[in-house]
Amino acid sequence: MDEDLAIINKNTRNEKIKNFFINNKKLLLSISTVLILILLSFYSYQIYKEGHREWLSNKYNSAIIEHKNGNNSKIVSEMKEVVEDKDSTYSPLALYYLVDNNLITNKNEINSLFDILINKTSLETEIKNLIIYKKALYNADSSNENELLSILNSLINSKSVWKSHALYLLAEYFYSKNEKQKSKEFFNQILSIENANQDIIKETQKRLNRDFSE
């Protein structure tokens, strides 16, 4: 008797499962189709990304080769395109190349490219902080106090490894303006940072002993 009940229950269960698939055939087919499309889209996107990255790498490297060979006609436009592509690796490298080789003399144009990296490109936090510092360094000679502080504000209020560099830049900036009290305040801030760069600390101590000792 128990065996008969077990067989009946098993058959009932199988019948329910069979009916479920029959009654929901269209729904299950739709779900399967959607899942397949999602997987295909994902792999297609990955293939596109890898291909696009390779294209970007070739564009960056060929532009450098052309520039070193004396062909300057395309270097600026091609490097700007690489920056505007917002790639986490090649976009910063392209901007550094433009700045280091003084290929764009218009500061507003360079600052716009910096802003693309800082505000629109997906970067690791410390890479972005480095770019903020580089932007401040680039503008230090021509900016007023408020402009320079505005650029560095997020950095000097963070715990970034680049904070000591930013404070040192501000200290030197105010020293060059003969505002020694402000300069000293920024130098002193460096000595209170736990993760301050050791070379920056040494230079700071030298400057304080040499230029601010009473």
Topology:
Blueprint: H1 2-23, H2 25-68, H3 75-84, H4 90-100, H5 107-120, H6 125-139, H7 145-156, H8 163-176, H9 180-191, H10 198-211
Helix pairs in contact: 2-3, 3-4, 4-5, 5-6, 6-7, 7-8, 8-9, 9-10
Describe the structure.
This protein has 214 residues and is an all-alpha fold. Among the domains are: 53-123; 148-214. It has helices spanning 2-23, 25-68, 75-84, 90-100, 107-120, 125-139, 145-156, 163-176, 180-191, 198-211. Helix 4 (90-100) runs antiparallel to helix 5. The longest helix has 44 residues, at 25-68. It is elongated. The relative contact order is 0.05.
Poorly predicted runs are none
Question: What is the ordering of alpha helices and beta strands?
Answer: HHHHHHHHHH
How much beta, percentage-wise? under 5%
Helical content (DSSP H or I, runs of 4+)? over 70%
Main sheet?
A: none
Alpha-beta content class: mainly alpha
Any key phrases for this structure?
214 residues, mainly alpha
Summarize the structure.
79% of the residues lie in helices and 0% in strands. With 214 residues, the chain is mostly helical. The longest helix has 44 residues, at 25-68.
